[in-house]
């Protein structure tokens, strides 16, 4: 048995201890809050405290100079714990404690009160969902107020409202009835306000509501001491977790909860061997609960109040263990109008309860019988995930991944049931919301994994286990080809994190009751399940894939388009492909909406929809904002409407009603100000207008249609009045700016035709850019609309004048940047269509290079944005989740993405080479030179994907294939050449000749292979590129040395001493250069002069032997017998290739070495011919680097001819005699 199975067996054995002992079973971590109530309990007639060990526990748990808390990340946990601790200190002040003086106690109280006040000031009441907090905290604050400790805080009014709402639901009969309710779980909130004497019969196992704090409060108010309640508390104290002496858990017993959660978790994920694990004992416990509660279940005991959560788990367990169990009682008891309740008096429904209910319905014997309830649960879960005003969080667990895990389990189980024809689910729901939600859950889960393999705000093994189990289910979904490998790696990394030691706290307080706690054995079960769960969990047929019509060609097309944008270029390809897939899954929702506002008969084709969805999905995923689905959906519709209104103004009003722009402007102003329209009172404008009534009516209808789509969105109507007013203001500016733009464009075109001077309407470009120009771009309107969509409970709105000013200033710079970038990329289109462009302003006509001037202004706006964000982060706190900061950063990313797209559209529209790349500025380390604009490949961590780049066109294709083909052909050519050595006429050939020629061929082959691999694999990552860059440079050194050694051998064939001298020189120079290339320490600026010297020496080692040969034997001999005439051709090829590419120091293959930029000042010549004369036109073919590569291959061939000539001279002639003659003649 492996270790995981042994641990699983021990957990099941632990659960089996509850057999026949269900009333005294449970082991949770201690609760400071509940321990505090037990710590103040006194028994009448008995001196001192009933449980002094609890008092000591509370004193020991107080943090020095602070309050109490178990989970620092949870404000409510610190509040509840500190309220309990203060209650103890102020109530037990008459009980002396060793080592604690009255002054010490007063100091403790002072520190705790300050801590509590700080927590209350930052507490977001609206987002809290701890058990009973809305009735407990007001009661506790009242008690402390009686002790002269008063607290005020921003959320006090909201808390009071919640308190009133909760109390209004409690019927007076609760206090005298014999039927259990959840009120008994929080009796301490009613201490002194209600009579508990009628609740005696509602005890379970002697306690009240399975709550130690509630039981303590019951005992305090009981006129007759209840021994069974005291006995209950003593049992609770004895059940404490080891090492927490004096502490009591927040709930006891927890039989149903622990047994059901441990057993079901193991059974569903990896531990199915019923013979190995004692599931039979578990079944008997479940049966006991099920029978006692009439087909329902409770998490506490078989006599406690049943709930939908534990009932669902019971149905799941019984059916999985082969006991057919119907869900009729579950539906009858807990079904609501739109969802299922956990308890009948709960304030908010639970996401996870509805997940468990859905799973229970699906595993029941007749799931088709409950199709209506199944769809109800599915719709509620989808709504909870997508709707912006419903936070996707659970009331029982602080981690977002706990509901994500259960949501994935339930919805994947639903898809599988539909795929296997078990249920007949609506295909519209399945292909629409369910598919979209599942895919978003998958993408967000994958992207939220930390580098160490963990998940969670603070890396957590338990939370990591939730995510792995979720991925195991989500891996079943056949969405695209990239994700299965990503999921597999994510699960592998997550499991490695779980198996690691010492990386997380021993206890993680992520579960919620009245305070945070940890059911440690349940946590262990989840971790074991994560290590063993199967993935994919289900094998789905083709039916699910056919619902979405996701074609590989479609995904590849859009993925490639977005992957080559500068802002997205460094992201993994799977994240981009996933975002594209998500956008396509929005198709159903978008098509179901009424998107066309205008009569489109006069407008261009509206092919924006999927593209808009992709830009927002990419921004949301890749920026890591993870906005709710409904916010994305509303933004998609809004941006489409903006495109449509822009089209309408430009192609209808600007053409059909060109002569009535002033009248239409007045019409729009009146419509926006809700002024009545009256005809016939004046000679122009709206009254007495020459515009036909039908046209005026149609224009009015269209403008109102647009304003309604903006202002009547539910999220906008829920927004604050300040945000709504700002949106109306920007809407007015935008619509009027469109008319002003038409009028200005018309005047500008007229002045151009007439050759007259055009005067800017706003006096200067600066003024126009910040008013009409930015408003016409719709950027301020879009941001105002987006701001209304962001939920107010996401974080606080800006509250100070400084913060408000900074936010508004960022808006201005964002709008300016958006307009300027649009104009910069659309100059030709605007000229063609007669639209006023930034570059039409006189400021840009007075100097050369208007585009360059505008680009520098854009850079200035970017710097302003950077400074603005830094200032705003200082004000709101850089680490805080602030709605304005979050929204602005997302919107900035989105605008930058659109700017990249505009650049793609306008540059690539003129291309005719079929290239799917686009001009942009990649990371500096990837740039061949600044004139190569497009065709850069996407960085891809998968080597197989990198190699696949051999199959498509990019700007390294020619570089790769020139040397790849050369590397393939060279061995064949070398073999043929070497065979000539053994021909009869070369009787003087020796083994040394074979070695010399072999050295050249092997060094050339190494150079070509290294160069090929560098240019091919360089798109993997920066680290890989740097490694192969060094190998490429080593190839250069190797071929340099390998070229010179045989040449020296034949030049000085009759002078062995000179051979050895020059061989030594070449090898030393080559070795020194190789060292400088390979050792990181010497690649710094400190060693720059040394490197330049080594490179120079390596180059000189080629020319010195040649010049010495000319000096010794004369030029005639060197040309005729040593192959020097071919060396000149070789030099021309190398030099020509170097010249057009401007490799200043080293003219060798693969010439983009790191030393090129550092060897000579950047002011040196940079030829880069021909691309410097037409940037972007030689990206794929005939760039200088490619020409240089071809020249290298040709030079190697020429060098072979030179060596062959020298070899023939040495082996067919009396070369030493000839050398001697030429040498004497020279002398």
UniProtKB/TrEMBL annotation:
The record ties this protein, via SUPFAM superfamilies, to: Terpenoid cyclases/Protein prenyltransferases
Highest taxon above the source species: Eukaryota
The record's subcellular locations are:
Membrane
Question: Where does the UniProt entry say this protein principally localizes?
Answer: membrane
**One Pfam family linked to the record:** HlyIII
Task: Report a single Gene Ontology molecular function.
Answer: metal ion binding
| UniProt keyword terms in alphabetical order | Membrane, Metal-binding, Transmembrane, Transmembrane helix, Zinc
Residue stretches spanning the membrane: 960-982, 1033-1052, 1061-1082, 1094-1114, 1126-1143
The UniProt record gives the binding positions of Zn(2+) as: 1015, 1185, 1189
Q: Which InterPro entries match?
A: AdipoR/HlyIII-related, Terpenoid_cyclase/PrenylTrfase
An annotated GO cellular component of this protein is: membrane
Topology with respect to the bilayer: Multi-pass membrane protein
Sequence similarity:
Belongs to the ADIPOR family.
The protein's name in its UniProt record: Ent-kaurene synthase
Task: Give the species.
Answer: Fusarium langsethiae
